[in-house]
Design a protein that fits this description.
By secondary structure, this protein is an alpha+beta fold. The chain has a single domain, classed as Glutaredoxin (3-Layer(aba) Sandwich), CATH 3.40.30. It has 9 helices and 4 strands; from the N terminus they run βαβαααααααββα. A hairpin with a 3-residue loop joins strand 3 and strand 4. The protein is globular and about 50 Å long.
């Protein structure tokens, strides 16, 4: 049995992170029952200083990257096609607004204590990319909690407190200091890094090579 620790550095607002995880899931299935994976999600904020009302995403991305809205819309459309082929809901990708993701990251940390870390992350991806919901809104976050059958009142108490703030900040500091400047980044066995939403075949080879070296 090959055991691999995979720390996924990602942001809830990053479409490539959702695509990257879907491709990782494919890779893990291809590797089969001889491999055991321990997945942990690590926080990263693409727009940590975001506050107030969100901007339309295409407009915001065009301004951020110095490209035309037409170019950004085409790039978003391409991601929608990729996501559809992976079974990931990106129906509202171009209709969402920019949002602060810090509280979402705190809820992912909280859900980890319930063994529902990945489920929470995927619920937040679905809410943002599939439904264009405001993932900075506590009610939207609590609706995601409801959808997983977790304790809404306990989650509300987390959001109204400073719980898990330190854990999120620690993730951000740790991986920025380690040189992670874009996401997704997959840290394998706390040693090897795979950057970007690589195709599943690339991930299969990398994970197999790493496990063989570790053995």
């Amino acid at each position: 049995m090959h055991t691999l620790q995979i720390d996924i550095v990602s942001d809830i607002a990053c479409p490539w992170c959702a695509i990257g995880y879907a491709r990782l899931t494919q890779a893990m299935k291809q590797l089969g029952p001889d491999y055991l994976f321990n997945i942990e999600w690590r926080a990263f904020e693409l727009n940590p200083y975001h506050s107030g009302k969100g901007q339309p995403i295409v407009q915001a991305l065009a301004k951020k990257y110095g490209r035309s809205e037409h170019e950004m819309r085409a790039a978003q459309s391409n991601m929608m096609t990729i996501a559809k082929d992976l079974g990931v809901n990106f129906d509202k990708l171009q209709e969402r607004l920019t949002a602060n993701t810090f509280d979402g990251h705190r809820l992912v940390k909280w859900a980890a204590q319930q063994g529902q870390q990945t489920a929470m992350k995927l619920a937040l991806f679905e809410a943002y990319f599939g439904k264009a919901r405001d993932i900075a809104d506590p009610q939207v976050l609590l609706d995601c909690v409801d959808g997983l059958g977790l304790d809404r009142e306990e989650a509300r108490q987390v959001l109204e407190s400073d719980q898990y703030e330190a854990a999120v900040r620690q993730d951000e500091e740790t991986y920025q200091n380690a040189g992670v400047s874009s996401v997704p980044a997959f840290i394998i066995n706390r040693k090897y890094i795979i950057s970007g939403a690589q195709d599943s075949d690339v991930l299969v080879k990398a994970l197999r090579d790493i496990s063989e070296e570790a053995a």
